[in-house]
Write a structure and sequence with these properties.
This protein is 38% helix and 17% strand. The protein is α/β, with parallel strands linked by helices. The protein has a six-stranded mixed sheet with strand order 17-20-25-28-31-32. The chain has a six-stranded mixed sheet with strand order 35-38-43-45-46-47, with no helix packed on it. It comes from Durusdinium trenchii. Pfam families: AMP-binding. This is AMP-dependent synthetase/ligase domain-containing protein.
């Protein structure tokens, strides 16, 4: 029984009884469970017992002994074997037969073995025939009366192996467990005798002190003749962890040792400081690949035990951050370890990081941003609005239009200046998170928000926009062709290359930066001419997509080169069934496209939709003021308004509310008219993007997707899509999707969650292609972020991040992941896809809440808040005076700022948390108030009353998520603002990193019921770029590789690496990217 062992060898028997199938020892050749090794021990014990039984009985076995003496019946068994399973089984057999073992390192001179034999007088030597011959053990037997027997372990292992139960004899505690030889002060070998009680204590206490668990993999590096092997083997065995034997040739080379630690996913190790230094500061051809500081890039390594030498600050700074560092000390005479210092280094971002400085600077920027927005509102109200009353209406429109254009140009100029001053050129390197370089990069990315390169690029965005965007990217240093079509954000500009007529679809960032390994790793990305990267695909830093290649949707290209047609996570080559193979665009095609795009871009700046709302506001004020007041108005002060306008102000919030509702209704109506009046798309078809027909299709797709984002989960979504030309059956529920209504057919009783791609329309090599109709059969369930260009057969279930390029024939199947795995859909979900029946009142409230409140009223309230800010400003400060200009402008700015913050706190934080919190039912029918509350809270927090403080990539981000109900530990790092989908149900430990486009969610709509499940992310977990954790727990130190997706309820084990969609355990050897060749460069 665990904890009651009286013999060190009984730790193995206990583990074999409790966890027989658990891996005990892993060598280069094989792995062995506790049960397998226990059986091997039993075979050796039987042979050893026969040998011991033939020995002469001791004359006085029970006579009193002094501390340095051993009993006459305490035989010594010398183990002369290489480290591995035979050696481990032999020492256990010796101890369980109440002998003391003495292990000899076969790499040592045989003369040393002779000196040991002369001292300890072993009764038996256990070895192999090969070693017996190589080391001339027969000569040792002839020259001395010891050993009396030499046992061939290979022969012993052939004997019948039956388990032998543990005795748990209290007398064993005071018997010898092993002998360790030290050179001593005289230079002659001296045998140190350690008893079972001492050895058991150190194994148990040490294991508990450093927190070993059964999921750990502890490196067995030390020689069996050095006492550190006791904690490596028995300390791990006390926790039922796995010991992993490191080959002698590997441990002699620091770089090789480093790669071995990664390959074997080692979570704990014991080493001397000088050995660690060879791994962090090495030279030679291998080390040039490993890099000088790769030691800190072992995300699975969580325990480092250091002893034997003085511990230097350089070792601590390199190996301690984010790990348990145990600096142990103890002479051999007192069982390996007698004292030590266990510490958790909280400064886990690296020696060149400045977390406090970054927090201060980023905090200032986070606060200044809403101040600048409030100042912008103040200038619009105090300067521009009065000015419109002294000029004609058409001039007012030109003024508003010119100001918006100038603001856009100014933003780009500021971005260019900031990038080249703060960064210069991005170069391939590694930097600490919160280093000074990271801070400069964060500032550039923050300035890019709101510019033409920082705004979202939805499907259907015009060629002119892309042309202008590419111009700005080139000015920022990106090697982007003017004819490229990039529908996503670009990060680390200089390291990104996109060729002519290549297409990179969204929504995943095209980023050359990766944080998943605990460092800011920068590596170049290139997409060749005419290449196609499908929707929601991820290009890992370091990836190369060859010219004319095709990357399927929802794939992940690792940090290497791919060509041809690839798909999957990670991407692998697949067979191409296209009638015409892809080719590199001709130079004439590129020139023609570039010329037409440039002509279209020259007039793009004339169309400024952002000017519509300000112009409508000016019209309302001028209509209220009347033509006479407007003409006779005299600007006594630069911010004064006509009296009639001032008297109208109290009504402004209601007018704003009504006008917002009207504008939203007109937008939906205009979308329906555009979709109906423009020519219908009839697949299969293909249009040049620069052609009139191509622009019509792009315009239709742009407007319908904007309307879909506006409606979100509104129950009127299917009816509106019918108005736009789509064919929908009865009982359909649909959210915000990417679609082309002309080519979408949805059957009865289908449920479609958010962000799915329900169209075959793509932009490829300058053409808008629509190869087929998207047809979803009756009773289909579609989760989030799937790509279904051809649709699904009847009764299909499509999970999360699933790509199905073709529509299959078989009904009632389930699909999950990329490439999609297929399974039988549960029968309870395939009979009838309609939601559970609800009362008339519940249905009425569901429709009212999702259609009226979420779509119209909440946005009307948002407009009322802005209007109320203006009213409050004018009521408190009608106009400035000669002595109070700056004071009034400051107070007006403060009013706008406080109203923005107050509305966010009231609606998003307080009301959002009241509607949706951890006390909400964990399973509710679709038409329940739980669902409507959840919908409304999402609209409030994510789309309407968004936070004025954007904290992504800062130390303040955890506080932001805590306001939403998440439980987050220390040193949480998350790049983007919205990564926790269900914050009240998410608990995150310390030192967790969430990379670009990754998210964590705790809900599902399976079976048309909203179900919540708590999600726990353990300490030191890594959720890498575009990875998704869905209703699964992530253990301590686990890593979810880029674009990987967890299967519902498939928890990630501690200190393991997972990859794929769905995620499965991956080999660490395959995870090493060439990013590792770069050292720290801060």
């Amino acid at each position: 029984m665990a904890g009651l062992e009286t013999n060190l060898g009984e730790l193995l028997l206990t583990a074999a009884q409790v966890s027989p199938g658990q891996l005990c020892l892993e060598t280069e050749d094989a792995g062995y469970t506790f049960e397998q090794i226990a059986l091997m021990v039993a075979g050796i014990r039987r042979v050893l017992r026969k040998a011991l039984s033939s020995l002469a009985e001791p004359l006085h076995p029970g006579s009193p002994l002094r501390a340095h003496e051993r009993r006459a019946d305490e035989h010594v068994v010398t183990i002369v074997l290489e480290r591995g399973v035979k050696s481990l089984a032999s020492i256990h057999a010796a101890m369980l037969e109440r002998c003391a073992y003495n292990a000899f390192d076969v790499a040592e001179p045989v003369e040393k073995l002779q000196s040991w034999i002369d001292v300890c007088h072993p009764a038996v030597i256990i070895s192999t025939q090969a070693l017996f011959t190589r080391l001339h053990l027969d000569a040792l037997s002839k020259s001395s009366q010891f050993p009396q027997y030499v046992l061939d372990v290979d022969w012993a292992l052939k004997c019948q192996q039956k388990p032998i139960a543990a005795k748990c004899d209290q007398e064993d505690l005071d018997r010898l467990a092993y002998l360790i030889f030290t050179s001593g002060s005289t230079g002659k070998p001296k045998a140190v005798m350690i008893r079972h009680a001492s050895a058991l204590n150190v194994a148990r206490v040490w294991s508990a002190a450093i927190g070993l668990c059964s999921a750990d993999r502890f490196a067995q590096i030390s020689s069996m003749s050095w006492d550190v092997h006791v904690i490596e083997i028995y300390g791990a065995m006390a926790a039922q962890a796995t010991s992993v034997t490191c080959p002698d040739i590997v441990k002699q080379s620091g770089p090789d040792m480093l790669l071995w630690l990664r390959h074997k996913q080692i979570t704990g190790m014991s080493a001397v400081p000088s050995h660690l230094r060879t791994m962090q500061c090495s030279s030679g051809p291998v080390s040039s690949l490993a890099g000088p500081a790769l030691g800190v890039n072992l995300p699975q390594l969580r325990i480092v035990d250091v002893g034997g030498e003085a511990l230097g600050a350089d070792v601590v700074s390199t190996w301690a951050p984010g790990r348990l560092l145990f600096n142990s000390y103890g002479p051999t005479e007192i069982s390996v370890v007698c004292t030590g210092l266990l510490g958790v280094v909280t400064h886990s971002f690296g020696e060149n990081s400045w977390p406090v400085l970054c927090a201060v600077v980023q905090g200032i920027v986070i606060v200044v941003e809403p101040v600048l927005i409030a100042s912008r509102m103040m200038l619009a109200e105090r300067v521009l609005l009065p000015l419109t009353f002294v000029v004609p209406l058409w001039q007012s429109f030109l003024l508003v239009w010119a100001i918006i254009i100038c603001e856009k140009i100014l933003r780009v100029i500021v971005l260019l200046a900031a990038k080249w001053v703060l960064i210069g050129r991005y170069k391939e390197a590694k930097h600490d998170i919160y280093s000074l370089f990271y801070l400069r990069h964060w500032l550039v990315e923050r300035i890019a928000d709101g510019t033409i390169i920082g705004t979202e690029t939805p499907p259907g965005t015009s060629v002119a926009f892309h042309f202008l965007r590419n111009l700005v990217l080139r000015a920022l240093g990106a090697d982007v062709a003017l004819t490229a079509m990039i529908f996503t954000r670009v990060v680390a500009f200089d390291l990104v290359s996109v060729g002519h007529l290549a297409t990179v679809n969204g929504l995943k960032c095209l980023t050359a930066v990766n944080y998943g390994e605990g460092k800011m790793v920068l590596r170049s990305i290139s997409v060749g001419e005419g290449a196609f990267v499908g929707a929601n695909s991820l290009l890992e830093p370091g990836s190369r997509v060859a010219a004319a290649s095709h990357v399927e949707a929802l794939s992940m290209v690792p940090g290497s080169k791919v060509s041809g047609r690839v798909a999957g996570v990670p991407a692998e080559s697949i067979e191409c069934h296209a009638a015409k193979p892809r080719s590199i665009p001709l130079a004439s095609e590129v020139r023609s496209f570039r010329l037409k795009a440039a002509l279209m871009a020259s007039t793009y700046w004339l169309f400024t939709p952002q000017a519509v709302i300000p112009f409508i506001t000016v019209m309302i004020f001028q209509l209220e003021a009347g033509s006479e007041d407007s003409v006779d108005f005299d600007l006594k002060r630069f911010d004064s308004l006509p009296e009639s306008v001032l008297s109208f102000l109290p009504q402004l919030p209601l007018w704003s509310f009504a006008c917002t509702l009207l504008i939203l209704a007109l937008q939906l109506l205009l979308t329906a008219l555009i979709c109906r009046l423009l020519p219908r798309v009839k697949p299969p078809c293909s249009y040049l993007l620069t052609s009139v027909r191509g622009q019509m299709v792009s315009l239709k797709m742009l407007w319908i997707n904007q309307a879909s984002q506006l409606l979100q989960d509104a129950s009127m979504g299917p009816a509106f899509m019918r108005m736009c030309g789509a064919r929908f059956g009865r009982g359909v529920s649909i959210a915000a999707e990417v679609m082309l209504p002309d080519t979408l057919v949805v059957g009865n009783c289908c449920f479609i969650a958010t962000r799915n791609i329900l169209t075959s329309a793509t932009v490829d090599q300058g053409q808008f292609k629509v190869p087929c109709v998207t047809h979803l059969g009756d009773n289909c369930f579609v989760g989030n972020d799937n790509c279904l260009p051809a649709g699904l057969p009847e009764g299909s279930f499509c999970g999360l991040n699933t790509s199905l390029p073709k529509r299959l024939d078989q009904k009632n199947l389930g699909y999950f992941g990329t490439p999609a795995m297929t399974f039988k859909r549960p029968s309870s979900l395939s009979k009838d896809g309609s939601p559970e029946e609800a009362s008339t009142a519940a249905l009425w409230w569901f429709h009212f809440s999702t259609n009226v409140i979420d779509v119209f009223i909440l946005r009307g309230l948002q407009a009322m808040v802005v209007a109320s800010s203006l009213v409050m400003s004018r009521c408190l400060f009608p106009s400035t005076t000669n002595t109070s200009v700056l004071a009034v402008l400051f107070m007006v700015t403060l009013i706008y700022l406080l109203m923005k913050v107050a509305s966010w706190l009231a609606f998003s934080v307080v009301l959002g948390r009241l509607l949706y919190n951890e006390a909400i039912p964990t399973s509710s029918t679709y038409h329940s108030t739980t669902v409507t509350r959840w919908f409304t809270s999402i609209m409030l927090q994510k789309f309407i009353f968004t936070s004025p403080f954007r904290t992504g990539g800062t130390r303040w981000h955890a506080h932001h998520f805590r306001l939403q109900g998440a439980k987050i530990g220390q040193r949480f790092f998350c790049v983007q603002d919205y990564s926790l989908i269900d914050a009240p149900f998410i608990s995150i430990g310390n030192d967790v990193i969430v990379d670009y486009d990754a998210d964590i969610r705790g809900h599902s709509f399976e079976d048309r019921r909203l179900k919540f499940s708590p999600v726990t992310i353990g300490n030191r977990a890594r959720i890498m770029a575009a990875a998704k954790v869905s209703m699964s727990d992530v253990g301590d130190g686990a890593m979810l590789r880029p674009a990987s997706v967890t299967w519902k309820g498939n928890n990630l084990e501690p200190n393991r690496v997972y990859q794929g969609a769905p995620a499965v355990e991956a080999s660490a050897f395959n995870l090493g990217t060439s990013a590792d060749k770069f050292g720290d460069s801060n």
